[in-house]
């Protein structure tokens, strides 16, 4: 295919801008430099940046305030068995990170890899191998020697190998695009010896030991042949191609290929908002939540661009452009960019006329969470005006390393790798690496440890350790075929994984490891909670009195609810195959065989196990790719400016508390907010709750949390292991639902409720809270919350705070309906609730003592002991409360066309427990409840395909340090002991009860 002459003879004759000519050429391996060891370079970087305030990104492991500066790069002394294994000098290639295959330690395991494809291996009229530089601005130097070879860098062994896949390879090319889809690398476009490459999609499948090339059949019109464009996988679903040059002019069009829809076809998008101008040689990278960032480029007038644009998909299907915040340190094109969590790392680039981006601007970071650009020295508030000489030399050695263009970059965990490129008329063959310390503070321990190991071993020629791929999206397992719209429940079988990716493992491993033997602490769990029973008796009596006096009236169809006998038959409207005794699950609902469990012997995530995807399985991997809701999608609300004012209380709370990896219990118990701030937070949250219905109408995907009871450390562990509601986490594409009991029992109730309220204010359409029985003044006055408020804020301010938060509790929604198939509540349906409308009709604000029998059942009732106990039975929690049998569950589901009830309220040993043949799940998220239960905590992750996956954390082992050397441990132990001695907790569900004991439930 011929190329328009305008593209082969650019105006300024910059060698970096020339397309590949029709020259063949062998790969030449230049003499490698003898770089300063990475560890020493980082130490030097520490000293150089010690006065910079924020600190340099290249060194120092301490947590710093504010956005981190861009990191420093160092040369990796990679290994290779023979000269041909190394990629050699080249530019215009792609570098793609591919996750590990299999489980480390098992046969067939393949670690994380960087896949380098294509590129130009020579300069026409200049020998790259000779190392003889020519003037960067001289005319007539053009790229040549296009190739289609594949090289693999193993991040575990620090070794390059030449890969020879089977199958028909793509044609030689450069200036093409590539992106990873699971363990596949998708190649498109570019320019080669014969001109523009065909628009076909080529897939390099790396799942097996022997890689294979495939060509993907795509129907209908598409982007067409082009080069200098960008492509990224957005939200693990959409291949997005943007811009480039079709041989005639720069382009600004946007194309999307939905990998979840067959047959595959490109669709031209018309995004709303202000988008980038026609340009080529830009970069694009997708954030973990599905936001694509397009950065830099060169416009139709050959002017380099400094702007950055975000592209995201709304839940209603609309795509929208928005200008990224902050000030870029420099215009640039032919640079490289890659996301690590919420930070876009940009390196190198050209300015035209043979000039390169250099000085501190040669490396930059767009921190999308903070909304600012940083270079290697500080936050950028205005474009840098440093020198841009074509032959500049000297200065910071690490900055000089990144003075290049037409290179490629990829990230493995917290490490950013750069390979090759062009500088001053010389092709480069070095591999650079930098660690994003800001990401290391929030990613998994496995990733962080591996990054540290790499930093200390690069000079020895080996990268040690295991690299964890932090992907904060929820990944449900590939489900078996099920009826459309059916809810599929997962049971625990899988070991922990970095992010939410996992492999199969036997069902026996679902059970918590370690002894379940009863300790002396269990005595408390089988004792009666007499105080709790007394506390609710008055409220129940008041509710009954109101009902008798006619103040609360149920619909006619509900009047027989309390008279339901224990032997009442299940309605015949239940699905046909579900009523028989041998059918445990109705048609269309099945028990899935996978879950995610964090091992008891570890304190953090275990990375390295990655479930493999094939392109035929994409239809089961659809994820919601969205950025806000239709209500919030207005021109005034920029996609990248999701957060409230920097001075808001909610933002202060989130910045102070949302630290999944770094939060530690405060040694000083004084709370960090004052009364005025708590009042502001409650006012903001109360306005949101008042605008919501009593029964929330929610969509999947969503994470569901059970009781937390002030155990803030467990909430942080769950966020750390399975994703957090932050810009750097997964809040943009998955909702969060909390089922109540945020306070009491634990010693950090104030942290727990403050953070949840702040998250609600910050993300009102993604974070959802409903009421539990402890969100009532009469209850939390007795079980710790009131005492904690007074202890941490003083008597006057503490009592005021306690009253204010309890007034807010009266506004909380009471239940949530997900996809009209799953209802979530705190307690249960008790004797009185037969229809969802009864809950919807409850008017708020409502205090517990003013509520009806419906409210009491909703917040206080429990299922019976097991599926064999049907009907209604007395509840040992207190007089007048009931337990309900599986027949009531089935009847309620049938009456409301529901498939599942998710409730909390009871401690269960494995964090979750099934009842009523799987139609009800009890969920409890606090581990080792009250310090004695030794139970696991769990959340449920409901995927878009209605697959329910339980995800567990185990209790932490006892602290090694003694109470004398651990003040916060002593505070916690004292708090638990005194509270539990005075008010023993409700026994763990399923635990045997001590008979003939005055403190037992049976005695009461």
* Shape verdict: elongated
Terminal Cα separation, in Å? 88 Å
Quick one: how many beta strands? 50
What does the main sheet amount to?
8 strands, mixed
Mean pLDDT: 74
Secondary structure tally, helices: 18
The amount of beta strand, in percent, is 15-25%
Overall structural class, as computed from helix and strand content, comes to: alpha+beta
Provide a short characterization of the protein structure.
The protein has 1004 residues and is an alpha+beta fold. The chain has 18 helices and 50 strands.
Structure in words:
This protein has 1004 residues and is α+β, with helices and mostly antiparallel strands. Helix content is 18%, strand content 22%. It is built from 18 helices and 50 strands. Strands 34, 35, 36, 38, 39, 40, 49 and 50 form an eight-stranded mixed β-sheet that branches. Strands 37-41-42-46-48-47 form a six-stranded mixed β-sheet. The chain has a five-stranded mixed β-sheet with strand order 2-8-7-4-3, with no helix packed on it. The radius of gyration is 30 Å and the shape is elongated. The chain starts with a helix and ends in a 22-residue tail after the last helix.
């Amino acid at each position: 295919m011929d190329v328009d002459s305008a593209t082969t003879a650019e105006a300024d004759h910059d060698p970096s801008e020339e397309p590949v000519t029709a020259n063949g050429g062998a790969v030449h391996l230049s003499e490698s430099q003898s770089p300063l060891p990475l560890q020493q370079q980082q130490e030097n970087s520490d000293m150089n940046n010690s006065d910079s305030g924020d600190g340099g990104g290249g060194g120092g492991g301490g947590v710093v305030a504010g956005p981190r500066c861009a990191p420093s790069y160092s040369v990796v002394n990679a290994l290779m068995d023979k000269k041909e294994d190394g990629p050699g000098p080249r530019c215009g290639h792609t570098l793609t990170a591919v996750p590990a295959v299999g489980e480390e330690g098992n046969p067939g395991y393949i670690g994380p890899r960087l896949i380098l494809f294509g590129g130009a291996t020579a300069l026409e009229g200049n020998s790259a191998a000779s190392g003889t530089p020519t003037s960067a601005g001289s005319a007539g130097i053009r790229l040549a020697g296009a190739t289609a070879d594949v090289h693999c860098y193993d991040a575990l062994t620090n070794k390059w190998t030449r890969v020879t896949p089977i199958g028909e390879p793509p044609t030689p090319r450069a200036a093409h695009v590539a992106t990873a889809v699971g363990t596949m690398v998708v190649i498109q476009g570019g320019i080669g010896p014969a001109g523009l490459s065909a628009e076909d999609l080529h897939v390099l499948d790396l799942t097996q030991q022997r890689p294979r090339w495939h060509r993907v059949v795509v129907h209908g019109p598409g982007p067409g042949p082009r080069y200098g464009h960008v492509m990224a996988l957005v939200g693990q679903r959409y291949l997005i191609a943007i811009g480039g040059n079709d041989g005639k002019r720069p382009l600004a069009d946007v194309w999307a290929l939905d990998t979840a829809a067959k047959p595959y076809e490109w669709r031209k998008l018309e995004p709303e908002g202000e988008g980038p101008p026609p340009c080529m040689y830009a970069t694009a990278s997708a954030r973990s939540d599905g936001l694509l960032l397009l950065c830099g480029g060169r416009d139709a007038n050959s002017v380099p661009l400094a702007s950055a644009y975000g592209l995201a998909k709304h839940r209603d299907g609309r795509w929208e452009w928005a200008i990224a915040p902050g000030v870029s340190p420099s215009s640039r094109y032919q640079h490289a960019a890659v996301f690590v969590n919420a930070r876009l790392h940009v390196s190198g680039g050209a300015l035209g006329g043979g000039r390169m981006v250099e000085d501190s601007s040669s490396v930059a970071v767009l921190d999308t969470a903070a909304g600012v650009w940083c270079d290697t020295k500080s936050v950028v508030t205005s474009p840098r005006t440093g020198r841009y000489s074509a032959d500049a030399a000297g200065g910071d050695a690490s900055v000089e390393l990144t003075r290049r263009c037409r290179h490629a970059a990829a990230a493995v965990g917290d490490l950013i790798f750069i390979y090759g490129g062009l500088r001053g008329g010389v092709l480069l063959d070095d591999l650079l690496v930098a660690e994003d310390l800001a990401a290391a503070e929030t990613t998994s321990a496995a990733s962080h440890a591996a990054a540290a190991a790499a930093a200390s071993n690069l000079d020895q020629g080996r990268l040690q350790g295991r690299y964890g791929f932090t992907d904060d999206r929820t990944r449900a397992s590939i489900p078996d075929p099920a009826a459309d719209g059916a809810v599929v429940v997962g049971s625990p079988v899988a070991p922990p994984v970095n992010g939410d990716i996992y492999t199969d493992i036997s069902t026996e491993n679902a059970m918590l490891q370690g002894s379940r033997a009863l300790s002396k602490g269990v005595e408390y769990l089988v004792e009666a909670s007499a105080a709790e029973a007394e506390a609710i008796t008055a409220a129940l009596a008041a509710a009954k009195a109101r009902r008798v006096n006619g103040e609360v009236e149920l619909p006619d169809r509900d009047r027989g609810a309390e008279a339901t006998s224990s032997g009442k038959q299940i309605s015949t409207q239940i699905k046909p195959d579900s009523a028989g005794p041998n059918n445990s699950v109705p048609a269309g609902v099945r028990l899935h065989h996978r879950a995610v469990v964090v091992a008891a012997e570890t304190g953090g995530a275990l990375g390295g196990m990655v479930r493999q995807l094939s392109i035929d399985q994409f239809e089961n991997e659809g994820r919601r790719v969205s950025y806000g809701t239709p209500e919030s999608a207005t021109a005034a609300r920029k996609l990248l400016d999701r957060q409230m004012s920097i001075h808001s209380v909610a933002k202060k709370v989130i910045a102070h508390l949302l630290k999944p990896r770094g939060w530690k219990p405060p040694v000083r118990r004084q709370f960090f907010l004052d009364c005025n701030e708590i009042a502001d937070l409650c006012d903001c949250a109360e306005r949101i709750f008042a605008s919501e219905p009593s029964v929330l109408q929610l969509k999947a995907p969503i994470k569901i949390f059970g009781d937390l009871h002030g155990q803030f450390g467990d909430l942080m562990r769950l966020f750390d292991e399975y994703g957090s509601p932050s810009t750097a986490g997964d809040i943009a594409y998955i909702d969060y639902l909390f089922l109540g009991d945020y306070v009491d029992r634990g010693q950090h109730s104030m942290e727990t409720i403050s953070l949840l309220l702040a998250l609600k204010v910050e993300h009102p359409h993604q974070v959802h809270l409903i009421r539990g029985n402890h969100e009532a003044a009469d209850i939390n006055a007795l079980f710790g919350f009131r005492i904690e408020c007074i202890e941490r804020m003083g008597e006057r301010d503490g009592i005021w705070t306690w009253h204010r938060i309890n007034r807010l509790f009266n506004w909380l929604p009471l239940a949530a309906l997900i996809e009209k198939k799953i209802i979530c509540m705190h307690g249960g349906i008790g004797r009185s609730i037969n229809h969802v409308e009864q809950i919807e009709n409850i008017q708020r604000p409502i205090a517990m003592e003013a509520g009806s029998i419906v409210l009491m059942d909703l917040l206080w009732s429990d299922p019976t002991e097991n599926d064999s106990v049907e009907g209604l039975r007395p509840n040992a929690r207190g007089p007048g409360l009931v337990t309900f049998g599986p027949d009531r569950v089935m009847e309620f589901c049938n009456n409301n066309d529901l498939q599942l009830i998710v409730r909390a309220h009871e401690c269960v040993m494995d964090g979750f427990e099934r009842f009523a043949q799987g139609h009800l799940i009890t969920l409890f998220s606090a581990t080792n409840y009250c310090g004695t239960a030794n139970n696991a905590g769990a959340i449920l992750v409901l995927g878009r395909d209605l697959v329910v996956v339980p995800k567990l954390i185990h209790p932490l082992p006892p602290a090694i340090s003694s109470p004398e050397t651990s003040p916060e441990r002593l505070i916690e132990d004292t708090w638990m002991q005194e509270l539990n001695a005075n008010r023993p907790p409700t026994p763990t569900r399923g635990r045997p009860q001590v008979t003939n004991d005055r403190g037992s439930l049976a005695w009461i």
